[in-house]
Amino acid sequence: MENISPTRMNLLQRRAQIVLALQGVELLKRKRDALVSNFFEVARQASRSRRELEELSRKAHLSLALSKAFGRPEDTRVAEISSKREILSEIETKNIWGVRVPEIKTPHLRREPWERDWNPAFQNIHLLKASEEFERLMEKIISLANEEIKIERLGGEIKKTTRRVNALEQVVVPQIRTEITFIKGVLEEREREDTFRLKRLKKKRQD
């Protein structure tokens, strides 16, 4: 406490600091609670997406296997060649309680049968189904990737916010309280000494 000047001004400053620190703790805890709520919401959605992804993958590969079993090999080759295309993606940024989270957007990923470079009228139903299911599978992969990014960013911010709360609660606030106690103690001791001196002075005058 050697560097602290025990004055009433410093006492008032420390009291103002502790009020701000406690308000900061409260605000950070609210932020953390909101982040945790968002984190678990996204985590539940990601868990559902993983299950849906597994089911979509199973269906798509089954349809592809059936198309190869009941269709002509050249039809599958034509479908494979025509499926190769450039997919344009956009990156949007969302703000979740101060956390900037990128999100991948692919607006034209799924196509109608007539939008492909082969005539659906001459393809077997399993190949058409496989094409649709693989496009749905790709959509789900991108959707899950967005959710995984959110989980990572939110988890990181929760850790950072928790560290700030702990620093304020365990270091900053106790330190300020210790300084307040020290300054009050010194000021009270000075006040007692002043009172004692005044009493002595008053007694001397009376004598």
As for the CATH topology, it is Helix Hairpins
- CA-based gyration radius: 34 Å
CATH architecture assignment: Orthogonal Bundle
What's the total count of β strands?
Answer: 2
Report, as a whole number of angstroms, the end-to-end distance: 42 Å
Q: Helical amount among residues, as a percent range?
A: over 70%
How many DSSP helices? 3
Identify the notable features of this structure and list them briefly.
two-stranded antiparallel sheet, Helix Hairpins, 3 helices, 207 residues, mainly alpha
Description:
The chain has helices at residues 8-70, 73-83, 125-206, and strands at residues 90-96, 99-105. The protein has 207 residues and is mostly helical. The radius of gyration is 34 Å and the shape is rod-shaped. Strands 1-2 form a two-stranded antiparallel sheet. The mean pLDDT is 85. The chain has one domain (16-198): Helix Hairpins (Orthogonal Bundle).
SSE inventory with pairings:
Blueprint: H1 8-70, H2 73-83, E1 90-96, E2 99-105, H3 125-206
Antiparallel strand pairs: 1-2
Helix pairs in contact: 1-3
Structure, briefly:
With 207 residues, the chain is mainly alpha-helical. It has helices at 8-70, 73-83, 125-206, and strands at 90-96, 99-105.
